[in-house]
């Protein structure tokens, strides 16, 4: 079933991507809503490599820029596109344009998008993900008494 967005102008209605998987916060998944569509962000190793190559910045440098509120619109579009593609469930979403996402980020306001993208990048930088982008189970430790009775 195709989803259609009605436009206020004289242009033709735009086809929306297929329903996106819902991010589950308890599993450490992230989401970003742009243009009325909520996307699941997947910080996989291939996505992070593509982000670093296209931005010319390391993941940690991008996290620092995001924390300082200094990610450019172009950088946010690239980051969003790669993370969305990695979590995409359909061909249309996998073909998302970084330029178009940059426009949507501009229209929505960059503060929220910057924060969401930075948190997602930080999650990957701190070892919270497998190479495929799956959230790792939380590691728990217990104290044991090693003294002899």
What features would you describe in this structure?
With 149 residues, this protein is mostly helical. Helix content is 44%, strand content 11%. It is built from six helices and four strands; from the N terminus they run ββββαααααα. The strands form two sheets. It has a two-stranded antiparallel ribbon. Strand 1 and strand 2 form a beta hairpin. Helix 1 runs antiparallel to helix 3 (73-87) and helix 3 (73-87) crosses helix 6. The longest helix has 16 residues, at 110-125. The chain is globular and about 65 Å long. It starts with a strand and ends in a 24-residue tail after the last helix. The model is unreliable at 1-16 (pLDDT under 50).
Q: Uncertain runs with pLDDT below 50, 5 residues or more?
A: 1-16
End-to-end separation: 69 Å
| Beta strand count | 4
- SS-based class: mainly alpha
Provide the fold topology.
Elements: E1 3-5, E2 14-16, E3 30-34, E4 37-41, H1 45-55, H2 59-67, H3 73-87, H4 91-94, H5 98-108, H6 110-125
Antiparallel strand pairs: 1-2, 3-4
Helix pairs in contact: 1-3, 2-6, 3-5, 3-6
Question: What structural keywords apply?
Answer:
6 helices; mainly alpha; 11% strand; two-stranded antiparallel ribbon; globular; 149 residues
Short recap of the structure:
The protein has helices spanning 45-55, 59-67, 73-87, 91-94, 98-108, 110-125; strands at residues 3-5, 14-16, 30-34, 37-41.
């Amino acid at each position: 079933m195709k989803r259609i967005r009605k436009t206020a102008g004289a242009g033709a209605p735009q086809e929306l991507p297929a329903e996106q998987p819902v991010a589950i916060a308890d599993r450490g998944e992230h989401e970003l809503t742009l243009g009325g569509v909520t996307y699941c962000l997947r910080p996989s190793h291939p996505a992070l490599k593509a982000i670093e190559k296209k931005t010319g910045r390391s993941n940690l440098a991008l996290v620092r820029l995001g924390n300082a509120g200094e990610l450019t619109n172009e950088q946010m579009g690239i980051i969003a596109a790669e993370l969305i593609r990695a979590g995409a469930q359909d061909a249309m979403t996998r073909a998302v344009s970084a330029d178009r996402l940059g426009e949507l980020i501009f229209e929505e306001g960059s503060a929220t998008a910057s924060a969401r993208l930075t948190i997602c990048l930080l999650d990957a930088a701190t070892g919270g993900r497998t190479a495929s982008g799956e959230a790792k189970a939380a590691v728990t430790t217990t104290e044991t008494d090693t003294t002899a009775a």
